[in-house]
Amino acid sequence: MAFKLSMGEYWPGDSLLHRMDPRAKIACSLVLMLSVFFVRTFEQLALSWAVSLVLIMLSRVPVKKVLESLRPLALMLMLLSVCNLLLIRTGTVLVALGPLVITTDGLWGSILFSLRLISGVVAAALLLLTTTPTQLTDAFDALLNPLSRIGLHGHELAMVFSLMLRFIPTLADEAEALIDAQTTRGASLYEGSPIRRIKAVIPIVVALIANGLRHASNLSRALDARCYEGGAARSQWHPLRMQAKDWLAMGLALVYTVALALLS
């Protein structure tokens, strides 16, 4: 398999996280993802990772499935670590080889910034793994409903976001098929000079854009055939209701942010 993207795929289950209200999950996930940018010390990093591990256990999602969500970001995290290691010059010098200088602050920065981003990505991955696209649509529709009251398109924004999540796995599968087809035809995607590999990727990108436009056209026709009208009042088959466990989860997210502030 040449290309595989698991971010955005729902993992069926009946765990505590699966049964939570999607609005509470979105709020808690946003708190966890935003809080990683305020992690500065080892104690804060340990707390962030401990919370991530507890959430993985509560979700009952295989660890391998969660780690697959980090694969697309592996290269970015490696580059981030190398840049911090080489560019931060404060602290005690550990290695000095000409222009190459590695300090204690640079080493800590390369570890800190990568590990804290992993914690945020895990929170986003668990949200998508434990929440169906329909639940996400209903949650964003409810959260953006106040915008509709002031004349903005809250419902339409929620639908566009949910469709974006829905088509991530579809486009990933099509990219995988295109890469396999180009490789079968002798395209040098993994061999040759960087310029040659970039030229080999261009037909794949063009085909993906064409497929995306085709999906958008088919989707618009399907909506027209079903007489979809933006802004129309709609009911839900399963109305969202916040329960005690949802309020408790949001309270624990608040406690987590306070604990991070105390450990700074």
Global shape = flat
Portion of residues in beta strands equals under 5%
Strand order of the largest sheet: 1-2
* Secondary structure: helix percent: 55-70%
Major β-sheet profile: 2 strands, antiparallel
Number of strands: 2
Pattern of helices and strands: HHHHHEEHHHHHH
Judged by helices, strands and strand pairing, the structural class is mainly alpha
Beginning-to-end CA distance, first to last residue:
44 Å
> What does the average pLDDT come to?
83
Q: How many helices? A: 11
Weakly predicted, low-confidence segments: none
Query: What Rg is obtained from the alpha carbons, in whole angstroms?
Result: 22 Å
Give a structural overview.
The chain has eleven helices and two strands, in the order αααααββαααααα. It has helices spanning 16-19, 22-35, 42-59, 63-68, 74-87, 104-129, 133-143, 145-148, 154-184, 194-225, 244-262, and strands at residues 93-97, 100-103. The model has no long low-confidence stretch (mean pLDDT 83). A hairpin with a 2-residue loop joins strand 1 and strand 2 (100-103). Helix 2 (22-35) runs antiparallel to helix 6, helix 5 (74-87) runs antiparallel to helix 6 (104-129) and helix 7 runs antiparallel to helix 9 (154-184). A two-stranded antiparallel sheet has the order 1-2. The protein is flat and about 70 Å long. By secondary structure, the chain is mostly helical. The relative contact order is 0.16.
